[in-house]
Amino acid sequence: MNINQFATHLNINDVKINDSFWNRITEIVRTSVIPYQYLALQDKIEGAEKSYCIENFIKAGKIAAKIKQGIKSPVYPADRWVYDNKSAEDNAFHGWVFQDSDVYKWLEAVGYSLQNHPDDELQKRADEYIDIICKAQLDNGYLDTLYIINNHNEIFTNLKDYHELYCFGHMVEGAISYYNATGNDRLLNAACKFADLICNTFGENKIKGYPGHEIAEMALVKLYELTDKKQYLDMAKFFIDERGKKPYYFDIERGRKTIEANYHYNQAHIQPRYQNEAVGHAVRGVYLYSAMADIAKAYNDDELFTACKSIWDNIENKKLYITGGIGATVDGEAFSFNYDLPNDLAYAETCASIGLIFFARRMSECEINSHYADVAERALYNTVLSGMAEDGKSFFYVNPLEVLPEASHFDSRKRHIKPVRQKWFSCACCPPNLARLISSLNEYTYTQNDDTIFVNQYIGSELKSDKADIIVTSSYIENGKVSFEINTIKPFTLALRIPSWCDSFNLSADYEMKNGYAFIKINNQTKIEITFEMKVKIVKCSNKVRANIGKAAVMRGPLVYCIEEIDNSKNLHLLKLSETPNFRYKNGAIFADGFREIEDINLYSEYEKPQFDECTIKFIPYYTWGNRGENEMSVYIRI
Amino acid sequence: MNINQFATHLNINDVKINDSFWNRITEIVRTSVIPYQYLALQDKIEGAEKSYCIENFIKAGKIAAKIKQGIKSPVYPADRWVYDNKSAEDNAFHGWVFQDSDVYKWLEAVGYSLQNHPDDELQKRADEYIDIICKAQLDNGYLDTLYIINNHNEIFTNLKDYHELYCFGHMVEGAISYYNATGNDRLLNAACKFADLICNTFGENKIKGYPGHEIAEMALVKLYELTDKKQYLDMAKFFIDERGKKPYYFDIERGRKTIEANYHYNQAHIQPRYQNEAVGHAVRGVYLYSAMADIAKAYNDDELFTACKSIWDNIENKKLYITGGIGATVDGEAFSFNYDLPNDLAYAETCASIGLIFFARRMSECEINSHYADVAERALYNTVLSGMAEDGKSFFYVNPLEVLPEASHFDSRKRHIKPVRQKWFSCACCPPNLARLISSLNEYTYTQNDDTIFVNQYIGSELKSDKADIIVTSSYIENGKVSFEINTIKPFTLALRIPSWCDSFNLSADYEMKNGYAFIKINNQTKIEITFEMKVKIVKCSNKVRANIGKAAVMRGPLVYCIEEIDNSKNLHLLKLSETPNFRYKNGAIFADGFREIEDINLYSEYEKPQFDECTIKFIPYYTWGNRGENEMSVYIRI
Known about the structure:
Two copies of one chain form a homodimer. In chain A, strands 5, 16, 17, 18, 19, 20, 21, 23, 24 and 25 form a ten-stranded antiparallel sheet that branches. In chain A, strands 1-6-7-11-14-13 form a six-stranded mixed sheet. By secondary structure, chain A is an alpha+beta fold. Chain A is built from 18 helices and 25 strands. Chain A is globular. At the A-B interface, helix 12, helix 15, strand 16 and strand 22 of A face helix 12, helix 15, strand 16 and strand 22 of B.
């Protein structure tokens, strides 16, 4: 690992987003998603599934108070993933085992939002939630409402399934964001206290366990970066090093003999440093891989970085949907085998693509290679954005590339494929994850090292660094133009990512290409302009992917396009794109020459060359699909 | 309904099969499948899952003896579908709730086999089993080992799930076959005694229930035909008329309010006479539809026959695989929605295609229309034959049209798709069902009415009827030739089915075409020859079926062909058939001109016309696939 190449991302307080494309979306998150989720956490959204999140914290707070007074509380079973109204007693914990994380994710989004856009009323509401949360913390620092409410004698007895360390991770991330935005350290102190308990509980000569659902690793690195307490970094490293060792801790805690290679789902089948393929639950995967990259960088650990690179390559080249979606199977919400990327059965969870962006940024910080930001861009502009309705009030968890509503309704194999976005879910991982990512885009735009600022995403913004203040004006999505007004503090190099989709660009300055970036020496105040040619392209998926044989997709810039029934009538599979279509781009939509196969009457008949009528095919950006009612959709089209 | 058109099938004792294609297969069933299953029923096959079938009858026999003596037996729960070694006490019932049916199906096959090929040793073994079975019958006629062993006070309390009436149906069919072959009426008397109990238990002013898994209806019609006892026919009619009435009996027996339209799985969502689409568990479906056709004919019931025709049309035109497979989804082993016929996720159970043949014959007996025998032929020569390995020692339950072994191993959605045939299963529905169908092909070959003998399947055989003795010599599968040496008893009409796949044929006599049959007047002793042109055809599936867009299949005569990896190397999806291939037919295989798409390196790249190498593609009959080890297979190929 070449330590000279290390970079760090610019922080949220150094970058202010102001972008024609993104302003609308971040405003929806600020004005619609965050307030909506505030109510959802208290179960005040009519027609939405109950969260129980704040209710659990209030219950836990009362029990924590009793524990301090030495008063015993009733014990309830802590033995399953979800506790619904029917199966759980009134005073017991309700909801999913990871329900606490909802409010932490919300607080994280609120922190980012407040930094971009101060809002006293919102801050007051967040402070009230923090008060409720902190009251639930036990004296020893422990804070997970499932075990506090149901049985605090069983804490840390099922790391594999019951998400205590996962909730802890989100608590830390929420606390850091909120502290950075407001200076209010109440939640941060609580998080550190919990972190200290964890450091005292796990490690060499202590419990040699690790999280069933990763994220604590990433969070502990962040906490170390903020507090400079090395024990947090070491704790993260321990979790990564210990994972997958035999005998498996997950077997030990269940009191049984080690079962060989049974933990692919948790990426705990072998030690992370020996892994080279993305497997198991996709969100867990990318959260682990992100932390592996963090630790590889922090400890200059070549072996671990090599594992990260192998896994990255495996995802990028064999397990990535064109939309940046990952996780091809609903079973375990997991990565499937190489090149298994079915369109109509995809899982491609919004959260997984968000996690892929986390992983990508960390890889960018380890190594100069535009692939990382290329993939992040693909995920961001397609699967991540697709996750949210235009009004920010309904969400996709699953982002398929082909939808036939009839199949979703009648075919149980496709029950996870929703033809329209849904309201708040009880298992509400994706909406708050979306909110926190979109509110912190600032942190995913630029990285820098000693002499270079890397522009990874072309998002209009103002940035301040030790090298220069730069005003970036972007109409990247519309016409590929980005300009940089640079007020130099000292000479430096500006490195502009040349996106993999781009065949041709105009750059107003001299540059040198390396690792996918155009490097420009900046000595004085200057203005630089780059224009990427935004031609509509037909993109072919490797013919190793069986689902896409004989088909192609349409892209313009980073946006993947799709066809919908409402524009092209029923039976999208009968459409065929001309190999040399005359593309017309109008108001964000693309019109192309094509054909419609004439329907067969007989189920089986002697082969005759299919007959086609000419037609115009309308494509819209994939991320906008499903906003006009239930209908067929497809990314790929026959060619 | 035009009663003049009614026909009946020729019985097994009037037709003797002697056919170059079928002799080998019926011999495998006789010499390999039947002896193998004899051992499997006693759990004497090493490495095969346990059946527990005979073991249960022995246990039940002991308890039945105690009951006669007024001695109480311990009670075990009768509350689930399967009782494995771990979950059931030693003295309790073991296996699936329908386990009794295995031996009945075996006895049915043995009966047919003995008629074709007497065998004292086999008959002795069957008699021993019948002895064990009859000892388990209670004095009131009841015979189902689950309830006799576990709790005979709960009999007939869960018709929906626990298969007592299903086992009864198979008992009747087995008993009739065995009686016809041997004249031994011991099992037949036991079956009649059980049938009498059922007639006394169910009906108007009695329990208004009906079977959860249909077959008793069909069996009761057969029992009526043998015994001429009208009560059996009426009982079958009652079961069909009562089915699907509201409030649902299945709700009543579970003590709850009727849930609307919840019983599609059992075809009990509405009354059969108002059904017009094939839904739910495919085997149950075709067993019900078969009985509906029986009852429609017996009672000259136009309304019921119209329902049969609608359902038939729905299967034939919207829910039938090219291989004659039905049931497109593993979930509920069920029919999916119209035109949903995925190749790689197909269920297409062997038993379902067997049941489709039952349904087809009964429809042929109601109406002169070659479609019925066409579909039966499609099912017989493809999915049914595919169900059994060449040596008769392993079996497919599921008959997919596309297999990628990797997907079967790693993708849980395809766990039901087995790349190689399996040994005996504990849920061994298909192997004995195959044995009984293949041993009774005689009954599926000809139908007749007052003046006409219909040749539905072209299987070499000798038949005796009131009109003529006919020797049929057939090399249908090899070269499409069939000849008929006719010794007339009285003038009659011979009707030869002209298969739907056949464009051209030579017939040595004058004929008139009607409803898909060539009608030939026969007045004197004569010899007639017909030769069907056996050209290799490319067959297109309707483009309403999404899975087959841009693809085609190859057929020769009734045989559907497929490609296998062992002949064509890996990645069969890269192969493309020429639109005008020069087909070469050699030793049952077909060689064709085609192309292999050159593999892409990049997962995503700008579209370029795919590049192909020329190649020769080898096709083998679908029913022979999977006999040379685990490998890729596909029926459809790009064109």
